Amino acid sequence: ITTVFTLGTAFLGIGFVQGAAITVVHTLILEAYYEWFSPVGLPQEPMWLPFEDIWTLGIVAHYLSIFGGYLIALWIWRRRGFAVKASVRSFTLTVLGSAIAVLVLDGIITQGLLLREFPGVTFYIQRLLIAFVFLFGWFSYTGRDTASWATGALLLSLVWTTYSMYLSPTGLPAEDPTYLGYNALWVRSFPGSLIAALIGLWIVNAPIRRLNFPLSAAIMGLAAVLAIALPTVMPDEEGLAASASSSGEAMMVVGENPVDMDSTIPAEGTITLETVDNGNRWAHLQNIDEMDVTAEFTADGNSYQVMINQAQPRHPLGWYTTWFGVVYEAEMHGDTGIGTSKLPKVTPEIALWGWAEVSLNDEVIDRMASAHVMVMTDDPLRGVMLEVATEDKSLLALPDGYINVMWPEVGALEQPKAYERNRQWFGWLVMLGIIGLFGWLSRTAILVERYI
Fold it and tell me: What is the spatial distance between Cα 139 and Cα 83, in angstroms, rounded to a whole number?
């Protein structure tokens, strides 16, 4: 990003139009890089991104986020004349007071009223340190007028929320660390933190200049709307839930090759699965994806039962990603590097990896067998496929050492597509709002500079 924008601004100059054009160039370079030059997830779990994640959803998300960052930098650069001119001691104490005021209000509004739980002392220490450092740098460059503290409140709430996604669990030091899910972070914590930051920074910084009541009221009103509206349009569930089932005739693979779909015997039975994808943000030891799979079937005079209740956050040998156990509509097998190249490339509506308990004729033969399930409504492998120990053939009680059963039809399928779209639209609207806000502020800043 730095290379492209440094070269671009050196030849094209600095401005809204130049930034929009340079962002187009950079976004295309970025998508091409992920398409042909490098997978994501290095070094532990390399994964090549599918077409949708690069050229449809990805290209929009990358463009909006990068252009938004450019406009923030443009506004800061154009406001270089607003830098605070005060003693270091006075300015530092003001920033510290601002950080403390925001932190106290966030504890009351976000943690007390919206989330209704105490996040732990460590949580507050982290937030205080982040708030102080961020606000010190922000006010140093942008000043302390209404536009500065209002936009600073917005960006601080975003920094706090994204930091909590990856690096700031709740509970410490008295309890085990727990990472908040999507709804707790973005539907409650983000608008709550925004309101707290706006009020806290307004209290400390508004008296130094004539208060811009229309802008202040508009920003605080928007924050209040977010805090009230978001919980009503988003469900209470933290994760993305999906389920499927199939029953009746099936086919069971036999022989040396566990995925030879031409070497099968008849089978009959049922399989049901319920899954919750809680995200792919945390360490493998912190995995919280949920699954409940039950398969009961008969083949060649034997009865089988497979139960999968524990997610497999990592592949046992680290060969490829398992998306922390559950993933929806992700490419795998074929030439994707996920799964086996002996199967064609597929995009299952639901896929999971877990640890299975396997019973043969009502006798448990393995309690921790590696299992993989795919639900597919399209060819070339339409149906529900259950694989157990197909990679290591560790089921020693079975002649072939594995189980691979395929039901050719999906009997029932429920997916969280509407909820996923709501999340995407929410993210895009936030980024569009940032672009619109800082685009307008950048334009206003240059007009003020010319006037002065």
Answer: 7
